[in-house]
Target: Small ribosomal subunit protein uS19
Amino acid sequence: MSRSIWKPPFVSIKLLKKCYREVNIKTWNRSTYITPEFIGRTFEVHNGMMFNKIKITTSMVGHKLGEFSFTKKICIHSG
Model:
């Protein structure tokens, strides 16, 4: 179920504070929307098993952090 339209996008206050202090930000919070303050920063987003490094660009603004850290490994069968 998606978030209600009348609510603003969810942005973690802790991540915003870390954005101004740290270069690599390690987070388990996949539901945070990417804001313009995050552009140029590197996030390490947890996918359930390991941390994936994500460099934030302008085209990622408005999406969630979890959209760029895949949780499932693609299985290719030999044929």
Q: What stands out?
A: The helical segments are 13-21. The first strand starts at residue 24 and ends at 27.
